[in-house]
Structure formats: structure tokens, C-alpha cells
């Protein structure tokens, strides 16, 4: 292992990396407040004028939520901890975490109905949707349950599904659909890190009638970003009856999804990535066309808990301000989701600001890593996610070398998960407050930790 | 409505209720510290030597958990709020709520693996199980997902299921099993509030071979308690291949379940009742026999997310101290579950104390209501749950009269949910700290609120 070698190149490598660090001083880079890449631990200020103790959340919540800028996001109430810079779960704002400690409230009480109602209403804004016949859903569960909801409700045994496959999570989505009887065709790009072309997709849609097409908006295993707008519009022009289903687990609230305009039929996501809320919620958005398909099924829904027919009246009731019961929602997690949505989903402008901040941070991360000679798994910038980066390890350095060393520098990264390249790359998350609030120092801390650790491992380029 | 009447009986009623209240002074009742039934708001002390601020939970957690008695349970960190005295979600201890605000931690990090591992280990203690081939599971989701896990894994299309039906939740469990192809026979007692007899069950088991028998340990719609021990032992003597499946949503951690001794095969529950943790977790426990049935299925599991074959290696990995990934667990909710389990599930003695406290509180609640002339839905004390009470409304008083009036006295109760008697009864929860820690005053506050409200509505008996 390089770590244990007395490497004659190390001094040279150190000198080169120092030179690189100097080149990288982001003098005109607005997204990162820190003006050096010298290693700085994440800041955990002990006081913040905005933060409030968690136990007072309920009272706070009864007031109008104050307008809040990203610069006031805070972790002042949190114990010092290694930065979670994986592609979800991510670092949380104090206010969101505080909402997780909301005292007991009955799940069908007027108090909680208002919270659930506002959460559903803000999900409509999040997806830029004004169609009253589209419907948001919030279920207790992992994001993965969204795949069951798709399989159990939009698929009947023998239905054809076209899976646009950009990595491990596309494979898994296909597996989930097959549990519910789908006949799956996978469409891939020419290599790992690429995506199928619009020409491939058009040809596939013309060759066969598909009940659904699935797009993994960002495949968390590769960091590949798909062009949902172009694909969805293509589908609706070539095969309008095919439902466009978007796995937005690693994209929602980081990448824009203009649900109505793009004619998307279904989006599924989890709470712990772009939604910047602890894991434990499955968030879904269904078009009128998708709900019609469910309504006109020949066979009943293939799941009890993941049944759209069972949840639809519940969500409609909550959204209209009435209580209804099918299964107990994750009350505290919904409070946290609402606290987060209020921070960024109350208007289009707020959302566009959020997307722009994520894009700028992503460019900064990718530029910095590229200048250090590191290659992303995604083949080009246009195919790259804005909330995470999958990075090939330099030759001779393994995750077993790198990740523990980075963790010693207070930063947790994720290893690989794509089966064919699992040991060859690592993943960095840059979503939520880490991406939007440079004063917290998360991004520079993570980049510095990576570059310093590589240097210590003798990396040069 | 009685509320709006100038009722000549009211003065008499008041006098009688006052006399009743005097009779009820629980002079030798150890479970309730308060020695009068005069109305007292719930206490929310502003200071407690044990409580600690939520934001320091992580540090606290790294230390050995101190031994803690029920008398130190506290809500000092919580904003004043109406008491949630419904049969789940319930009132929470500060320490459990604080754990919900745990800062971000990667779901496969050594830090979180230890938390998940200890949670699984304590679930074994909770179920008095030492069989290494039995397996606890913790999934993100509502308790309801447990029904899908049973249906999708223990049932194959056409399998016969015997549902011991004691109310609305037994009906729903049957519905869930039918989604997965079960042929369900329901066995009921002679009236609402009763349960099928052992003789009925034995006859049914002898008449037909059932793949599974389901017992709703406590049906939350009726408050009926079933005798899991007697039924399970009967099943294993009459039809040993039949799997004994217990819906423990409203019983686990309130009523004892001696999993190995009683030869139970599967228990499912949610986090928000006896486990005294916010809603959002599905907790399961499977016997070696149940896992063998899953392993030997002819068809694949009928669900993707609710698949035992997919989760089993994950739970085994976490429990043995290694990370594994299938779907992201609800990290913060698991921290909260562990905080709660540490309070009562570290030893048999601790558990027996918890059950005894719930039983004593339940007797006190039921005695008090009986002395006020109110009837429970459950037909006798032996068939009555210890964590909740379903109570018939007095003639002429509706939930629309009673519940808002009780809520004005700072206590939230639940209405009816059993379809045939929905408007005729209400439900009171008495689980967790409300039952174990009389110094918090929850039980007396709730009982006083009910009795005072009835008095104001002109009730006499």
C-alpha cells in the first residue's frame, strides 16, 4: 500500500499538490466563503441568532415561519460530529432536526392535519405543479418503497417496462418492477457513467409499446444525471400512453423537475437527500394520467401498504384539511419535512435559487477534483449530477486506504456501490446546507480532506 | 345536545360525581402519586436533574447509558402541549425525543452500525428470546407494513389463513393477507368486545390446515386482549406446522410476549405505542420456523421493500457489527427506538416491572371509569388490554360533545374506529411514560378531564 511506502515521489507530490492548492484559491468563486483550501474543520458555532432550542419548536411552529436566507442555516445546536458528505443522508439544519423532536401530537388532530396539509401543498410547489388532479403523497418508509408503489400500482402482470439504466439503482428499480410482474427491457449507454441517447430511447419506444418508462434522474451509484425534460417530452410525442416515471431519490430539490410542463407522470423520492430531512419518508407525486391508470387497473393493487387506492383518499383528506386514517404517518418526520420545505419550496424563485446554488457548488467540487487530476464516473459534465460526485480512485489507492484517512479529517465519504467498478471509485455528496451555505465550510472541508489524504497516500499526477 | 340544555339534573349529577370523586381517592393506590382526582393540568416541570438538552444526545450516547428509573422520566424539554392520550402515538420521554434530533450520521458507518446492533439485540430481550435462529427486523415504515411482510413472505397464493378477529384491525389484517393471495377464514367471539374461544380455535384448526393463524394481541379498535400464550401453545399442539403470527402493534412492550417459550413464529409492531418512540418504524420478530417457510417458498416474495429474503442478510450484518445496504433505514428514528429500549428492555426484571406498571395503571383507569358507571367495549377484564381502554359513551352523549370538551381540558382522546359501533364509544391510551411515571400526572389529568367533561354534559348515573 502506498500509505506504508517510503515514497521518493512523496516530496514531489507534496510540492505539486501545494502548487495545485494555490492555483485553486477560489478568489472569484462566490459559492465558497472560505478563501483558501487549507484544511479547516467544519464550523459548529456555539451561538446563532436564528437558532432556537428544539424543545420550543412547537410554539415556533404556531407562528408564521419567518423568511430565512441560506446564510442563516445553522448547526449550532448539534454536537460536533464528522461531516456526513455521502450522497444521502446529508447534513441537516438545526431547525429541521429540532422539528424531529416535536412533542406527541395525535396523527389525526387538527394540529397535525395542518402540518401535513402544508407539507403536501409545498410538494406541489416543489414540483412546479398546478394541476389539481395531480397528487402528492407522503408515506412512512424508505425511498425504496416508491419502487413498490410504482410496481404495485402502475404495473399489472405482463406489462412492459422500459428502464433507462444508468447504474446500480436503475438495476434495482428493474428488480422491484419484476416483483410485480413487469417485463423489463433495460436501455443503457455505451459505458458505465454514460446514459442511453434520445435516439436509442426513441427507437425502443417505436419498437414496442411500454406501459411505463423509468428514468433514474440521478443514479446515486454513478452520479449520472439524466435529462428528464427531453426524455419525457420525447415519450409523450412518440408514445403518449406510456407513463413517465422518475426515480428522483437523488435529484428532487437539487435538480429541477417541472412536473406539469415536462409531462412527467410519477416521481418518487426519499427524505434524506435533496429534501434535506432525516431518512424515513417516501415522497411521491402522481399525475392525473397515472392516477387514471391506477383507477382502471384490471387487477387490484399488488401491495397493501404501498397501495395508491388506499392512500389517495387519505392524502386528499389531509390536503383539504380533514383527518383520515389508513396507517399512522411518521408524525415527527413530517414536521421535519415541513421545516425543510419551508426553507426552500415556498416559491419558484426560492427553488431556482436552490438549484443554482447546488449547480455552482457541484461545478466547484468537480472543477477542484478535475484540477487534481481525478476523473468522475459520469462521462461528461452534462451527464453529471449536481448533488453528488462519483470519483475514480487514482491508480494504486484503494477506498480502504482513502476513506478512513478522510474520516480522520472529520469527513465521511461513501465507497462505490456499482458492482462492476465497486472498488475503483468513491462518492461525495454535496446537497442541502452543505451546498447552499458555504459559511458552514462543509465543501472546503471535504475537498481539503480528500486532497490532503491523497497527498498523504503519495498521490501525484 | 345535553351541553346546551339547562338540565335540572345537573346539580344532582354534580353532587353525585363529587361524591364519586371522593370515593375514588386512591389512598392505597401506589401507581398514581396524586392523591385526589381533582382536575390538575399535566405537569411540565421546567427543570429536571436527569434531562439533558437534545443537542448533546450524541455525546451522551457515546457513554454507557446510566441506569434510570421510571420516576426520572421527564418532559421538561418539551413545550406545553395537550396530552396525547390516544392509543398511539403516545406521550414521549425527553430522552427519546432528543434522540430524534441526532445529527447526521451515515447509515452504514461504524457509529450507526453500533446503534442498530444494540437495538436489534435489545429486541431479542424484549421478546425474551435466546434462539439465535430467530431474527429481529427494524424497517422504516408504519406498523402496517408488518402486515405486508407477513402477506408477502409467509403467504403464497391460495394459502389458508385463520384470522382470530377481535375488531377493525383484525379485519384490516385479513384484507392485507388477501392482497397476497391468502384464503382467509375469520373466527370471532359472540359479540363485539369478545374474542374467539380456545374451543372454537381448536375446532377450526382440526377442520382445516392453515398456513398461518393470526392473533391481534390487542385490537386497538376494541381494546380486546387475546391470550397469545394459550392460543400459541394450542396451535403448536394441534397443528404444529401452522405459523403463529401476532399483530403486536398495540401490545408489544405493554403486554409480555415470551416468543420462544410460547412458540410464537412472528410478531409485528410499530414504534409509536408500547415502544414509546415516535411513529415511523416497523419492528418485526421472526422464528426459525417462519424463516424456513420463507426460505422454502415456491414463488418469490410478493413485495420488494417488504421482502424478508432481502432484509434478512442486512439485519444479520448489522447485528453482527457490519454494515450492509438494501434501503436506507430511518436513522434518527432508530436512535430514538434505542433510547427507549434502553429504558426498559435491558433485562427481564426491567420488562416485568414495565408490564406490572402498565397492568396497575390499566386497572386504575378501568376501575375509575367503572365506578363512574362507564362500560368498556371489551366484555370482561380478562379480555381487556393494559395499554388502552375502549369506553362506551353514556346514552345521549356523543363524541362530538365529549372529545372537544376534554381537549379543552388539555387531553386528546380518540374516537371510535370499529365500524359497527363507531359513534358509540371513545378510546383512551395509557402506555409508556403516561402509565409508568405517575408523577407526570397524565393518567389523573385524563381521567379528571373525562369525568369533569361528562359532568358538564349533564351525565349522571
Automatic annotation (TrEMBL), chains A, B:
Its EC number is 2.6.1.44. The keyword Transferase applies. Its cofactor is pyridoxal 5'-phosphate. It comes from the Eukaryota. One of its GO terms (biological process) is glycine biosynthetic process, by transamination of glyoxylate. Residues 43-74 are annotated as: Disordered. Keywords: Aminotransferase, Pyridoxal phosphate, Transferase. PROSITE patterns: AA_TRANSFER_CLASS_5. Residues 101-420 form the Aminotransferase class V domain. One of its GO terms (molecular function) is alanine-glyoxylate transaminase activity. Residues 52-66 have a biased composition (Low complexity). It is an enzyme of class 2 (transferase). GO terms for cellular component: peroxisome. Gene3D superfamilies: Aspartate Aminotransferase, domain 1 (3.90.1150.10), Type I PLP-dependent aspartate aminotransferase-like (Major domain) (3.40.640.10). Signal peptide: none annotated. Belongs to the class-V pyridoxal-phosphate-dependent aminotransferase family. This is alanine--glyoxylate transaminase. It comes from Magnusiomyces paraingens.
